[in-house]
Amino acid sequence: MRSNLLDLVQCQLIRMSSDIKALKTLSIVIPDTIDHETTVTSEGISSLLKCVVESMKNSQESLFVALQETA
User: Fold this and answer.
1) Is the whole model's pTM more than 0.90, yes or no?
2) Which of 11, 46, 59, 60 has the most CB atoms lying inside 10 A of its own CB?
3) Taken in order 26, 29, 30, 31, is the CA torsion positive or negative?
4) What residue ranges do the domains of the chain occupy?
5) Tens-place pLDDT, residues 24-54
6) What number of other Cβ atoms are within 10 A of residue 12's Cβ?
7) SS3 helix, strand, coil % of the chain, rounded to 5?
8) pLDDT surpasses 70 at 1
9) What is the mean predicted confidence (pLDDT) over 9-37?
């Protein structure tokens, strides 16, 4: 049980790390895209951000449930 919990926590932390990297990349790419007047829509940016936020929410919920199960 403890091993499964540790595996889950590690997996979710890796996932959250990837999400943070995605946000960091978006924070660089979006201003650059706007500065160079590249065709990008607010809907496209919004969709990307929603995906990252949803992934982070799922990771957070998984961690919360796993920690509750150990209490």
Assistant:
1) no
2) 59
3) positive
4) 2-70
5) 888 888 887 777 777 777 788 888 888 888 9
6) 19
7) 90, 0, 10
8) no
9) 84
